Amino acid sequence: MEASHTPLDITDRKNAIRSTMRARVSALTESERAAWSLAACGRVVGSDAFYRASTVMLYMPMRSEVDVISLALEAFRLGKTVCVPHADAGRKAMHAIQMTSFDDESMDADSLGVRVPKSGRQIPHDSIDLIIVPGVAFDARGFRLGRGGGYYDRYLAHLPRSTDTIGICFDCQFVDAIPTESTDIAVQSVVSEARRVPNESDHTS
């Protein structure tokens, strides 16, 4: 029988994975980041979830994350509504803000230093059809390891069952198993430049 783990044990295990992932991602070249980001985004574009979605929530990428700008541009091209998270550190919460441009003059930074639109209408969480979720690491069950703030877990916990959730990462960010707690929320599928788990048929097939 597997021994139970205390919250401190789990925190230590999560921090060890974060340290390993930072080293792995830091070792990637700029050309690898660019090519693998495009490949991972291509897997999202080919998914049924993206095909069906009218409103897509993604994120403004940091250097350690898959660059999803190409995915946002494809959503714009197809006439989909695009929104990004806006964090409220004081309330330990986030909400979605519509994005219509990547122009630097239209962007600001939220309380966590992440780029967000200076203005834009707030999109209710139950109006979002698909959420693209970043992570420091993922496992094949869809559990993710974030940066430790819990923002995405709290947000995902309140979504309707009809909302599709896709995690996105570089393939080197997959691990055998993410240590989990009761507050950790799994995504429905995860894509990288090399795979999509669980595998699903393309909407074009």
How would you summarize this macromolecular structure in one to three sentences?
This protein has helices spanning 7-26, 30-45, 48-52, 69-77, 151-156, and strands at 55-57, 81-88, 93-98, 107-109, 115-117, 122-123, 130-133, 137-138, 144-145, 164-168, 189-191, 196-197. By secondary structure, it is α/β, with parallel strands linked by helices.
Word description of this protein:
- It is globular, with a radius of gyration of 17 Å.
- The chain has one domain (7-196): NagB/RpiA/CoA transferase-like (Rossmann fold, 3-Layer(aba) Sandwich), CATH 3.40.50.10420.
- With 205 residues, it is of the alpha/beta class.
- Helix content is 27%, strand content 21%.
- A hairpin with a 5-residue loop joins strand 8 and strand 9.
Please supply descriptive tags for the structure shown above:
single chain; 205 residues; alpha/beta; Rossmann fold; eight-stranded mixed beta sheet; two-stranded antiparallel ribbon; 5 helices; globular
**Can you write the helix and strand succession as a string?**
HHHEHEEEEEEEEHEEE
Mean pLDDT: 90
CATH topology-level fold name: Rossmann fold
Rough outline: globular
Total strand count, please?
12
Overall tally of domains: 1
| Highest-level CATH class | Alpha Beta
- Full CATH superfamily name: NagB/RpiA/CoA transferase-like
For the biggest β-sheet, the strand order reads 6-3-2-1-7-10-11-12
Main sheet summary = 8 strands, mixed
Name the poorly predicted regions: none
Strand percent estimate: 15-25%
CA(first)-CA(last) distance: 44 Å
- Rg (C-alpha, Å): 17 Å
Q: Give the structural class.
A: alpha/beta
CATH architecture: 3-Layer(aba) Sandwich
Number of helices: 5
